[in-house]
Amino acid sequence: MLQQTTVKAVIAYYERFLTHYPTVQELAAAPQEDVLYLWAGLGYYARARNLHACAKRVAELGQFPDTVEDLLKLPGIGAYTARAIAAIAFGRPVVPVDGNVERVTSRLFGIENPLPASRPLLAKQAALLNQSAEAQDRPSDFAQALFDLGATICTPRNPSCLTCPWRPSCLGHTKGIASTLPRKAPKQARPTRYGVHFVLLDTSGQVLMRTRPEKGLLGGMDEFPGTEWRETPWTEADAMNHAPTLGPWALRGEVTHVFTHFTLKLMVYAKTLPAGHNAGIDPSFGAFRSTTRAALPGVMKKCLALAVTDMEKK
Predict the structure, then answer these.
(1) Residue range 104-155, pLDDT digits in tens
(2) pLDDT (tens digit, 9 = 90+) per residue, 62-111?
(3) Total structural domains in the chain?
(4) DSSP label at 198?
(5) Dmax over Cα atoms in the chain, in whole Å?
(6) N or C: which end of the chain has fewer CB within 10 A?
(7) Is residue 298 part of a domain?
(8) 158 close to 179: Cβ distance less than 8 angstroms
(9) Same domain, 296 and 201
């Protein structure tokens, strides 16, 4: 949950997850749609699918793998997570490299090569820190000490070099460039994509929804039928070719949602079907369901809120 997400945002989701799934076995036995429902709103939904698949694999094995090599075989476990689990949970003498450790390492060794290209070098240099007797004897404490050093002393801005235990051997401090490290390559402008979605309700309050493909962005999550997301805006005429029923549709407004690599702008249309008119919808558009237990990502919740709020006003 903490991958790409702050502790503050995670706490409520984490507590709710532990309430529903107090053991790995219970998580493994849960339907994926229930897992996605509990995750809805946290973003990066591949994490939820990987967590579920990982729990299933651990349940099959009957125990947690305790080496980096075996942990890497689990779904969703990458180099950092595998090393963090191996070091902190099982006392393996390895160094997990997160943003804090990258910062400490770049300053300690005076590495001026910009991220992200410098990551392999930073990982190699971080491994050298693990060769001390203290690190070998107490790998769990050493890994967490590195995290804490980066979080509390070797901070991104205004590092507290005077209180740092590694100040005498820090090349970044010696050169007077510690606060400028690690260097980062210039960010590219975030592109914008455009789409149209249709919120179709029936008289019982259910909404037409479909499930996105398992792989890809928002995989396995629910959505309202609509167009693809592309680099150019949709005209109303083109968009209506993707509507689940003929008009008239009411334009409710525009939703903007920012993903990691692009900004999404969606036009939202809404309509309520008269009683008895929801049977002829092509199943490729989805099925009418209650939104109460739907695994709606944040962007779709915005669409629903816009459509329903505007309907209530009218």
Answers:
(1) 999 999 999 999 999 999 999 999 998 888 889 999 999 999 999 999 999 9
(2) 999 999 999 999 999 999 999 999 999 999 999 999 999 999 999 999 99
(3) 2
(4) E
(5) 78
(6) C
(7) yes
(8) yes
(9) yes
